[in-house]
Amino acid sequence: MFMLQLTSRIPLARSFIIPRGISISQSRPKCQITRFSGVSGLASQLTNDEVAQIEGQIKSKGDEIRALKDSGADKATVKPFVEELLSLKAKLEPPAEPKKKQEVGKKGGKKGGNNKSDDDDYITPRETDYSTWYSDVIRHSAMAESSPTRGAMIIKPWGMSIWELLREDMDKRIKNEDVENCYFPLLIPMSFLTKEAEHVEGFAKECAVVTHHRLTGSPDDPTNLIADPAAELEEPLIIRPTSETIIWNSFRKWITSHRDLPLKINQWANVLRWELRTRPFLRTSEFLWQEGHTAHATAEGASEDAVKMIGVYEDFCSDMLAMPTITGKKSPSERFAGAEETYTIEAMMQNGWCLQSGTSHDLGQSFGKAFDVTFQASDSSISPVYGTSWGVTTRLIGAMIMTHSDDSGLVLPPKIAPKQVVIVPIPAKKNDEEGAEKLKASLDSLVKGLTERGVRVKVDDRDYLRNGAKYFEWERKGVPLRIEIGPRDVKNDVCVFKWRKWKEDKESVRLEDAADKVVEELEQYQEYLLDNARARLAGGTRLDVTYDEMKSLLVNDEASQYPGAGLFLVPWKCDAANEEKIKEECKATLRCYPKDVNDMKMFEGKKCFFSGEPADRMALFGRAF
Amino acid sequence: MFMLQLTSRIPLARSFIIPRGISISQSRPKCQITRFSGVSGLASQLTNDEVAQIEGQIKSKGDEIRALKDSGADKATVKPFVEELLSLKAKLEPPAEPKKKQEVGKKGGKKGGNNKSDDDDYITPRETDYSTWYSDVIRHSAMAESSPTRGAMIIKPWGMSIWELLREDMDKRIKNEDVENCYFPLLIPMSFLTKEAEHVEGFAKECAVVTHHRLTGSPDDPTNLIADPAAELEEPLIIRPTSETIIWNSFRKWITSHRDLPLKINQWANVLRWELRTRPFLRTSEFLWQEGHTAHATAEGASEDAVKMIGVYEDFCSDMLAMPTITGKKSPSERFAGAEETYTIEAMMQNGWCLQSGTSHDLGQSFGKAFDVTFQASDSSISPVYGTSWGVTTRLIGAMIMTHSDDSGLVLPPKIAPKQVVIVPIPAKKNDEEGAEKLKASLDSLVKGLTERGVRVKVDDRDYLRNGAKYFEWERKGVPLRIEIGPRDVKNDVCVFKWRKWKEDKESVRLEDAADKVVEELEQYQEYLLDNARARLAGGTRLDVTYDEMKSLLVNDEASQYPGAGLFLVPWKCDAANEEKIKEECKATLRCYPKDVNDMKMFEGKKCFFSGEPADRMALFGRAF
């Protein structure tokens, strides 16, 4: 055991001050360090080995802090550890990666206004500002960034790979329900939206309207483009906010007989809604989604399908995203316009807010009637079809981020991680050719073993980055497992496992066992994240709370607060006016009538927490994104 | 051998007349038929067995005709066979499937104007009108249909599955080249398009312009929606016709050092160009595509990448679509605006027209300069990056259709077929429970064997359709192999193979060998289609032709003609003005300078076929879609 005398220095941009000279125990025997003085810019005077040592310490310290937090330690207990961590990091200022960027960043203001925040490698802790933490996690994991188009984001490769994994798996689940994929036009004639007034009311007003089909040079300045006045459309076109209108128009043509039913189609598409306040993944003007649309001969057929699909979403969130959800029905006032019943999965984010993560609508005959889609039954009678629609969006990525990530950045469940394992080889010394060869052989064999087992693995052999910078980068990107392997490890026939969350210690693993162990432990890690999230959801949902208690807890609850007031599961007498009053007073909405507790009739013998009348169901209230 | 006395009747919509009473030999011992008189509507008086027999005959006759045509038989030889086929078909008029539609089609004008053509099951032969044939094939295979949005199509499940198979395979090939997927916004600020004047000139004028972000009720009629005048955008937004402008705007932020290069990204997206004349898959206002964009530190890097990607496309077309292409460079006047070199793959359709099926552009520094994207080299010098872009679209599906399909409908290469095998079980007689059980057991085992081998198989057990109607439907959908299996087959431990094209005879196959044989023969069938297409391309490309000969061949060559004049590979002296003259006189364009013949310097010692000057390359001329 070593005792460290630490002083600290943090960038000025961080708006809090760390006291100097805090003494703290350092219990990792692997980190053979004696003493540092906290001099800014010391990194440049350090040898590579010394730097690697400090980087190791930083990692260990971070792990300790996370373990403490996970074990429920309070702020006061954690604080000195955090200070020590910041102090360690200060030894390496300016860090290697940003330095490179500074060197090449001589092009002046070319990068535009948000240059500073792009280069800054600081993640705001959740406790400081949960909303900023969320943005920081996305930026530093390079999942997405803002775009020059208002309210739309650019999904970068790391975010896109996650979406592709999600889509691939969800697509299989959907096709498994005998649904076929189609593709309908992006643009919908405006007249279509007037067909179903109720539908329009609920959806389509804030949307992008295409009025012209050509650009031309402006009369005063031909190099300046304008919409050509001579190319105005007779009927404007709308960019789809959702595709019910155009799809049901086809259903009318496609469906004549009961033999055409059920008809189940789905499309993966981009849609656009003119949102005023946007947040990456959670709410953007353009987003990616799947929209399923089905038609059935019977009310039961539609109802069963709507229930089945919300179940598909629930299973997906649990299996793939390690994200527990509360499944239930929406109250009448929160239903999709035109739906007889809306089913929802609601997830609890780490700030205690709810996130509606997927919905499935039992449309009854409303669209069948509105779009005149009828079928002839085997007894020759003709009647309107019953319908459903259901969808999930890129929002699921936001939900996943806010379920698992921590103050060190993104945390990815293995099943949705573009790379499940990153291997960082520690190069042999320059003249050690034999060591280099053996390292390469062991590395190749390890990669082969992992790839054969279907593990998505990345070898980070960039020669211009220090190991610590690599660790830092992959940690922020949420890669579940890092494997370090150097000449000394190879001599001992081992490599070193370090998990992003979960096990706090590094672990030495025999090379011959490594690939199997990875597979086994990736599964355990996935379970661990799910269990953690389940515990948080259970712990964050209050029962037996009075309305006044809820109100006082929610009165100052904002998205930026962490941890927030959480969710409230209460006995309820269904009443839209009371729901509206609660919304006004608490900003909380009725998220759903959860299925499980209502199936158990937990409300029986209880009184509505708001009206005092006999409760007829359990309701989940909470703030929501 | 049987002699058939035939009379014929064809629907009035078919605009040619078949003489009655032609005598013709019928050589299939399997079809145990004696004699029919060609009475309209006879089908309703036939027993099921009789109907099945006629259906079998129709199939056999169709196969004979295709075999004759494939063997190069002339029209006169084929004609009586066609007449016999039509006569056979007439026995079953009205056919089972359309009859059902007529029964339930009592809803009057509900289906809209093109009701008739939707229900009509006639495919116009290529020789009658190639363009109509193409539309008929698409309609009757249910790949796509027109939409209420001008110029946009609805891709139906069969077409969408093909696109998904195509996308999945192409995506792997692209990622194999170290390209990462991203997603950029659909809408692009109008000002972006003015940044690269040359780029705008080539591309962006005919595009959809978004000018408003809200709908509202019209002042005179609040139930009628209009674009809200209060919600006009300060700067209009363009629906991407291609994404260079917005992607290079990000490149400027993402690239600073040579370490950031090469940067290779791709996106799968919908794009929109306001096309005046559209054809499904070949040219639609909205279409689906992938667009790859790369940045490099050197001119060679960009140039190699552009060449490599056109090679990826060429291999894909050959491997997956069984479609040979001619790879080459575009002439300067046909280059992508801003490109230093445009590489293209050109395919020959069955009417002899060319179809540009994919392009790859070496952009040099033009976009690096236009968008101020620079990088710092290791020697600290700063210079603009070099770029490429490359893409393929849903047009590839149109190319595939027109390469393989025939007068019986779609023909799909197995690798791109949503279903590679359709099994049509012939049910046991009503009281034959043992037969039914054995049939089910054999069927299940066959399906299991095929599925285990990765074969995409469909069992068509619809009980309300006759076998013949099923055969007819899957033939039109282009499924490579049909397997028939009935109680008698099961007793003999066999099933019956019938290929969509290729082998003309039905073949009895031992059940235990069937799955392996399917796998082996699907590969052979894929090769067969590719060989056929190669032979057609070779046969359809003329060498050693004078300009006057070409002109006289092309003067009446229209898309609707089959087979058309084909392509012309000629010695050429590069000259844009002459190219333009040829375009005016022949409507033919210079498709490319084909790589292989130019690598061989086939032009050496020859004179330009137009100017008579010494040729400096070989050029491919032709009409093009």
From TrEMBL, chains A, B:
SMART domains per UniProt: ProRS-C_1, WHEP-TRS
Gene Ontology terms for molecular function: ATP binding; proline-tRNA ligase activity
InterPro entries from the UniProt entry: aa-tRNA-synt_IIb (IPR002314), aa-tRNA-synth_II (IPR006195), aa-tRNA-synth_II/BPL/LPL (IPR045864), Anticodon-bd (IPR004154), Anticodon-bd_dom_sf (IPR036621), Pro-tRNA-ligase_IIa_arc-type (IPR004499), Pro-tRNA_ligase_II_C (IPR016061), Pro-tRNA_synth_II (IPR017449)
Domain Aminoacyl-transfer RNA synthetases class-II family profile, first and last residues per copy: 150-413
Biased composition (Basic and acidic residues): 92-106
UniProt catalytic activity: tRNA(Pro) + L-proline + ATP = L-prolyl-tRNA(Pro) + AMP + diphosphate
GO biological process assignments: prolyl-tRNA aminoacylation
Coiled-coil ranges per UniProt: none
Pfam families in the cross-refs: HGTP_anticodon (PF03129), ProRS-C_1 (PF09180), tRNA-synt_2b (PF00587), WHEP-TRS (PF00458)
One GO CC annotation: cytoplasm
Catalytic EC class: ligase
Domain WHEP-TRS span(s) in chain numbering: 50-106
Keyword annotations from UniProtKB, A to Z: Aminoacyl-tRNA synthetase, ATP-binding, Ligase, Nucleotide-binding, Protein biosynthesis
Region (Disordered): 92-125
EC number: 6.1.1.15
Signal peptide residue numbers: none
PANTHER family reported in the protein's UniProt record: PROLINE--TRNA LIGASE, CHLOROPLASTIC_MITOCHONDRIAL (PTHR43382:SF3), PROLYL-TRNA SYNTHETASE (PTHR43382)
Identification of the protein by name: proline--tRNA ligase
UniProt source species: Triparma columacea
